[in-house]
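Weekly modeling sync, notes
Attendees: S.R. (lead), two postdocs, one rotation student

Agenda item 3: backlog of single-chain predictions. S.R. asked that every request posted to the team notebook include the full sequence so nobody has to chase files. The rotation student volunteered to paste the first one in as an example of the format we agreed on. Action items at the bottom.

Example entry:
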Amino acid sequence: MSDAAGGVSGDKIWLDGGFVDWDDANVHILTHTLHYGLGVFEGIRCYRTDDGRSAVFRLPEHVKRLYDSAHINLLEIPFPRDRVQNAVLETLRANRLEEGYIRPLVFIGDGAMGLHPGDNPIRVAVIAWPWGKYLGEEGMERGIRAKVSTFARHFVNAKMTKGKTCGDYVNSILAKREALLDGYDEAILLDTQGLVSEASGENVFLVKGGVIHTPPLTTVLDGITRDTAIELARDKGIDVVERSITRDELYIADEIFLTGTAAEVTPIREVDHRQIGEGSRGPITHTLQTAFFDVVSGRDAKYERWLTTV
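Predicted structure, as returned to the notebook:
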C-alpha cells in the first residue's frame, strides 16, 4: 500500500531468488550501486481487466529490456530470464495485488569499493505496490504543464541511452525538480544538439496536421509504451513519423502527449507558457488514450498477446 507520506509499503519483496518480509529487504551501507549508481531497473504495470483478471502489460518485453540494460552495463544477472519473469507474477500474488506497479531492480552488492566493483555479487529484487496515475487523474483528462529543461539529455557516447540505468536518472531528477520548483508538472529535455529528446521519465509525441511526430531512438529510451502508441496509431490509420524535432515545433503543435509505463498516455496542454492547440486534451491523444486503456483492460482482443495473466 502507499503510506501517508507518499511512500510505498507492502508484504513481501522477491530478493535474490526468494521472498523476504517488506521491512527486512535491506542492504549493506557499502552496496556498490548505492555509491556509484551502476544498476538497472524496469517499470511494469499490472491492470485489473474488465473480465476480472489481473494482467501484466507486455511483461516479456519489459524483462527482455531489463536483460538488455544489464548486458549494456556488463552486469550478468544470476537468474535465467524466465525466472525473473515468473518472479514478477509471484510478487504480485505474494502481495495480493490485483493491479499495481512492479519494479525489478538489478544492483551490485557490497564488497570491493572504488569504481571497479570486482567480484561483488549481482543482486536482483522485484518489488510491487499500488500506484495510481503518475501525473494525476486531472492531468490525464485536462493535460499537464511542461517546461523545456535547462538540463540536456545524456549524449549517446557520454552514457549509452538504450538501457534503464539507475545512475542515469540523476539527470531526470534534476530536470523534474527544476520543473516542479518552477510551477510546472513535467520537464522536457533537449539533447546536446538542442533537439527534443524526451521528458524526465516519458517519451514525447506531438501532433501536427493529423500526423504524429516523435523523436527517433538516437538519444531516447526505446519505450515500451512508446512502441505501443505507435502500433495503436498506425493500426488506426494515423501516420506516425520518427524524426528530429525542434523546440519551437512543440510550441506550435496541435497536440502533445507523453507515454510511459507510469504516465501511460498523458496530454500536455502548455509548454513554456505557450498554450498547445486548444489548451486541452486533443482528439488524437484522446483516441490513443482510449485505445490504450481498452488494451490494458482486456477490451480489445486484437492485443490480447500483450497481457500476461497473473
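Discussion: group reviewed the output briefly. The first helix runs from residue 32 to 36.
Action items: rotation student to repeat for the remaining queue; S.R. to check formatting next week.
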